[in-house]
Amino acid sequence: MNFAADPACPGHAPISETPFPQADGVRSPxxxxxxxxxxxxxxxxxxxxxxxxxxxxxxxxxxxxxRAIGFLLDRIGGYYAWAPLPGRIHGLxxxxxxxxxxxxxxxxxxxxxxxxxxxxxxxxxEFGIANVHLSHGQMxxxxxxxxxxxxxxxxxxxxxxYNIVGPALIPGFRDVxxxxxxxxxxxxxxxxxxxxxxxxxxxxxxxxxxxxxSDHRPIVVHLGPAPEAHAPGRLRGMAAAxxxxxxxDGPARPARRDPPG
Length: 261
What we know:
There is one protein chain. The protein starts with about 20 loop residues before the first strand and ends in a 12-residue tail after the last helix. The protein is of the alpha+beta class and about 260 residues long. The chain has a single domain, classed as Endonuclease/exonuclease/phosphatase (Deoxyribonuclease I, Chain A). It contains four helices and 16 strands.
């Protein structure tokens, strides 16, 4: 299976498997791939292994990963963490070729009537990464995002299936991922559901890959600290603004029904 980028996508080259390798004091960008696998009928462990072999990411984020995706370790080794959604056969997963500084943690999110959502958060030391599969409700998924960013360090990125139409409107975060559609609703309406929002980071390169056996296309981003990320006062101000926004959000309102998936 060939996951090479479409000709219209920006180019992207594999980089070292070591996070932020040092070369004369210059850090290389950190390569992250995110893919909604489509539970049961979509990408299997072999498909994920093929993607890793081609892209050689420093971190792979997956959504709608079933227990069977864990067999990925038998094929390519590395380090894997799975966080199933409560009461569902699928959930979020992370894979890395190298050990994590600390294991990913899981936080509960404001939930819809049918699907209870969680988020995986990984602290890489240099910055944090959140792996998400948000609800379909357009008010609820933005509330979930506000919950997530309140848990992140000043330098952070949120990647995954947002299920958001239009801007996310999260203070301090910029939409730095690819702008091409990543999903076609009922094979007709193209939507950019898979995104990367970042704070204190710059995206050096990005791409959308062919979807393979899933109904979502994987996205690729190359992230590194932004120059302004070294101004602690400014970043603390961003974090404080997010905290104030979270407090202002107040008690959770009754959630709209959340379609399965």
